[in-house]
Amino acid sequence: MAKTVKITTDNRISVVEVPWDVEAQGEMIGADCTETVKTRRMYDLFKDYVVMIVDESGIIKERPFNSAASYLYGADIHGCGIAGDVLFGIQKGPEILPPDDVEALKGLLMQKFPGLSETEGVS
Hints:
Elements: E1 2-7, E2 12-18, H1 22-29, E3 34-37, H2 40-46, E4 50-55, H3 67-73, H4 75-78, E5 86-92, E6 95-97, H5 102-112, E7 117-118
Parallel strand pairs: 2-7
Antiparallel strand pairs: 1-2, 1-5, 3-4, 4-5, 5-6
């Protein structure tokens, strides 16, 4: 099991515990197929290779948009948002690993997005 940060479409942020594999990550965010995304905006904010694990078909499934994730993705620039809940990881070489300090990551996200409400994670 690994700990990571989750942001839901209803602006709730939590630290969750999940087996660190693609299937479990997909289950945690309600995705049949996950995709990993990273942007320059995310690198500038986190000063690290933080990635979001998203539902690849969230828009097709008509899931609600995730405002924090969409901003991190750059939707205000290119118009494509992130639909559905997201998890965060760190890219180290070809691997995506759980964040080293989930509390610091959660704190930074809460500072950047004051509309997020902290909630207790569910594994």
